Amino acid sequence: MWPDLVQKSKEGGLDAIETYVFWNGHEPRRREVYHFGGNYDLIRFLKEVHNAGLYAILRIGPYVCAEWNYGGLPVWLRQIPDIELRTDNQPWKDEMQNFTTLIVDMVKEAGLFATQGGPIILAQVHQNLLYSDCASEVERSFFFFFPSFSK
């Protein structure tokens, strides 16, 4: 499926493909089960994009808004004591960092960032922060979290 869609995108004049990473699809049970096969094979998809000579924009999430059920967040997050989703809350930041680190490390290991010769020219952590009531708190927390990935 992907090679055909990627090729049609290229033939249509696109030079980059943007993709989300759906946390609830990749980690349906907290730190027990990870899905990265079939339609969830992120590395294979990114390699298809690269093989077609296109760039990739990787939207890691963890929150992907209305584009996916529950914003892409796994429902098991609600069972974590004292968690406040999408806020400057330590349980939320711990879970978010665990998942984001998993994805970034996987992509780095596959050599898929542009600095490694891969197709990923941009990676985005989170979405629509400016529209959140807690935007300034969350954004501040990301300034401490994200620099470790940007090197």
UniProtKB/TrEMBL annotation:
It comes from the Eukaryota. GO terms for biological process: carbohydrate metabolic process. It is an enzyme of class 3 (hydrolase). Its EC number is 3.2.1.23. Gene3D superfamilies: Glycosidases (3.20.20.80). InterPro entries: GH (IPR017853), Gly_Hdrlase_35_cat (IPR031330), Glycoside_Hdrlase_35 (IPR001944). Signal peptide: none annotated. PANTHER family: BETA-GALACTOSIDASE RELATED (PTHR23421). Belongs to the glycosyl hydrolase 35 family. This is beta-galactosidase.
